[in-house]
Structures are given as C-alpha cells and as structure tokens.
Design a protein that fits this description.
There is one protein chain. The chain is an alpha/beta fold and 276 residues long. It contains 9 helices and 10 strands.
Length: 276
C-alpha cells in the first residue's frame, strides 16, 4: 500500500492543540503519513511559568536523517524554529534536499502569549528560509513584523502585504486575516492573482493551534498532489470547521477540533479571484 508522506519541523506543544501535535492530527485526518522533527518543547510549570526547551542541532539532524532515509517526504512544513541557528540549519537542509513542496509558517507568538522566535532570528528567516518556500502563511502580526511594522487594518492592506512578502522569495503568500473586523478573510497571492478566501467569523476564544493546523492542512493537500490554490482552499474549509467545533478543557485557550471537517464538512467558505 502506498501513502503520501508529510513532515512537520516544529515545536512540541504539551497541551496538544498546537505545534507538531496539531500537525500530526491534521495529517492523519487527510490520510497522509506524518513524521516530525521536534525543534523545542513548549510547556509550563509552577516553578518556571511558560518555558521553551530547545533541542540540540545534533538531535534535529538525527531526526531529519532518520525521516529522509527511512520514510521519505512528499511535502514539509516548518513551524516554530525559535533560534537563528536552527533556522539556518533547517534552511540549509531544505536547500540540499529534493523536497518540492515547502510550507513555511513563520511562527513568532503563541496563542498563550509565549514568544516562539528569538529576536535575532528574524533576519535568518527572511533571508534564508522564506526564499525556499512554496508558500508562506503568516498571520497579521507576523506579516507586519516581517514588513518592519507595516500597519494592517483592511483586506486591501493584506493584499499589499502579500505582494511585498512575495518579494522576499516565496512562490505564494497567504496572509491570514483572522484579526480583521467582520468575516474571516485570508489573502492568497501568486504574483499575478489574488484569491480572497472568506468564512464567517466564529464567536469563540478557543483557537489554540489554528495557524499550525491551517498550514498543516495545506501541507497535506500538497503532499496529495493538489495545486497550491486547491490546497489552500480546502485547508480554509478544514480550519473553519475545526474552529466552529473547537474544544474547551480545564484552563486557557482551547484547541481547534481536528476531526471536525471529516465529521461535519464545511460549506460556508467562499473564494473570490482578483487580478493584480
């Protein structure tokens, strides 16, 4: 039996709703075999509060070697890389690999408020990693940060941000408009055409891992042979359903529900195409 394979290079989120946990759950829902490289562990304790525990470059190299040698990769996504050294190492590995579908989620701040990218790592991300990407998937704060503080307050701003971000080298840019007022509108740009992906805004605080899940769904779609636009459109439906049926547990922001799209489908997403 043959199955497509997707790799996530990201942090481990002990709460289970974000990071590699969210990615692997998403891959499973898409019937894609998921593998993972853990770059750091994110967890908290009464003694330390929220803590990030980076893995060594040797550990990251060993995980990548094992996956490439034993399993293979049809598509990969990067999430929380955290340090300049890890970003540079992963970028160098990707550049030397034969993986064609590269999704970069430029993770910077977690839903629980923790900083997931060190301040000195931004330049390495912009110069070394983003140019290798098939698609990047920043949310509004991440897009603003990558563009030196550009203000984003409207869909037109998202379109301009997507255009500027594409100049950094990725083939496609998806700027997620989850913080806009009104419907949840995301902008996908391929250099010639904008796709405006709209879904109703769902009244919930439980969106932990939404960005990770969205980019993982895109990765799984690419692994299965979808075009970038097809993968993004299907992923928009996937994450909308996951937020619509999101979960609430003991404390903090609850996670999205990764099984929701398969159980309940999603019909409220629309796509509008606009020429540049």
């Amino acid at each position: 039996m043959k199955i497509q394979r997707a790799l996530t290079i990201a942090g481990s989120a002990a709460r289970g709703g974000a990071g590699i946990q969210a990615d692997l759950k998403t891959f499973q829902e898409y019937d894609v075999f998921g593998t993972s490289v853990i770059t750091a562990i994110v967890a908290s304790s009464e003694k330390t509060g929220t803590g990030i525990f980076p893995q060594t470059l040797e550990a990251i190299e060993a995980q990548l070697y094992t996956i490439e040698k034993d399993i293979g990769i049809d598509a990969l996504k990067s999430g929380m890389l955290f340090t300049k050294e890890v970003i540079s190492y992963v970028a160098d590995w990707i550049a030397k690999s034969d993986v064609k579908n590269i999704v970069v989620d430029p993770v910077m701040i977690g839903k629980m408020g923790s900083a997931l990218l060190q301040e000195d790592a931004m330049e390495a991300m912009k110069m070394e990693l983003l140019p290798l990407a098939t698609i990047i998937t920043p949310n509004m704060p991440e897009a603003s940060y990558l563009l030196d503080g550009m203000e984003l307050n409207s869909v037109e701003d998202l379109k301009e941000a997507a255009k500027k971000l594409r100049e950094l080298g990725p083939n496609y840019v998806l700027v997620k408009g989850g913080r806009l007022v009104g419907p949840a509108v995301d902008v996908l740009y391929d250099g010639e055409q904008y796709y405006l992906l709209e879904a109703p805004r769902i009244d919930t605080m439980n969106t932990n891992g939404a960005g990770c899940t969205y980019s993982a769904a895109i990765t799984a779609g690419l692994a299965k042979g979808l075009s970038v636009s097809e993968a993004v459109i299907d992923a928009k439906k996937f994450i909308t359903a996951a937020i619509r049926y999101s979960l609430s547990f003991k404390d903090g922001v609850g996670p999205t529900y990764h099984a929701a799209y398969g159980k309940f489908s999603e019909v409220d997403c629309t796509v509008t195409m606009v020429k540049n």
